[in-house]
Prior knowledge:
Helix content: 25-40%
Order of helices and strands: EHEEHHEHEHEHHHEHEHEE
CATH class of the largest domain: Alpha Beta
CATH architecture of the largest domain: 3-Layer(aba) Sandwich
Radius of gyration: 18 Å
CATH superfamily of the largest domain: Tubulin/FtsZ, GTPase domain
CATH topology of the largest domain: Rossmann fold
Bound molecules: guanosine-5'-triphosphate, magnesium ion
Oligomer: single chain
Number of strands: 10
Number of domains: 2
Number of helices: 10
Distance between the termini: 25 Å
Amino acid sequence: MHSLVLVGCGGAGVKFLKHVRKFVEATYFEVNDSSQGIKMDRRLAEMVDSVHGDMLSKIYPWLKEIRGEHVVVLAGLGGVIGTEASKLIGKALGKSTNLYGIFAEPFSMESPERKRRSEGAKVAIERDYRAVFYLPNDPLVRYYPNLSIKDVLEVHPVVIQHLLQDFQRMILKNSMNIDLRGVLGLGIGFGVGKERIRIAIEDALDSPWHLGEVRYAFISGDVDREDVEIVAREYGFDFWDFYKTQEYGERIKVTAISK
Length: 259
Ligand SMILES: Nc1nc2c(ncn2[C@@H]2O[C@H](COP(=O)(O)OP(=O)(O)OP(=O)(O)O)[C@@H](O)[C@H]2O)c(=O)[nH]1
Ligand SMILES: [Mg+2]
């Protein structure tokens, strides 16, 4: 298994990390303005844009602790700490590390300031990260009209958990077969019943977070690879893989990645 380093930045990032911890074995770092984990002073967070080169590790000495073959940063964009820490990690580690990001984007009903900060950060993030998944909050409200905002906020941690499980089990080891670069779209799906493989694929295709075309599918569950192959072949994915596990019970899980 590939070793992962997971970094949760800001309130949302730390929250996502707390959930993922129960499911994914990795080295964990929390970066926030609270006393737990790495403490990032708000004042120092606000000056990220003006610090460069050797000064980075002088002003933010904790950057040196974050090292690994594959580093994944989790955050919600739009606030100060999570946004600035994500940019900072990109600037400091992007050239030397396989750096991936999974970012929630703020609701448009939040302040325009948050939107501005989020949009500005995306430019820097896309320059410095190898691959990025944006999971905007807005489409979830349209997608799940019956969920309260509180419940909508709980979708992200679970989706991120599932993506990271597959990252470790199937995605990283197939990095020769998939083009894991740039801005990527995502869908997670589940299926039960007789047609559960197909239902899970359709569910993963039907996501508010896809972009372009769905290129890759990662399928897991308690079935035989041959049965998966029959269905997966019909969809003409550029690449797909299967991981046999009993942990989802009778459910089949599919992670679809688009580009
Ligand atoms: N989907 C989802 N989004 C969240 C959640 N919590 C926060 N966000 C989003 O993430 C953005 C950043 O929020 P935080 O992570 O709390 O902000 P921060 O990085 O701690 O920065 P400060 O506001 O300066 O404390 C918010 O504007 C929300 O849109 C969550 O639980 N789920
Ligand atoms: Mg905060």
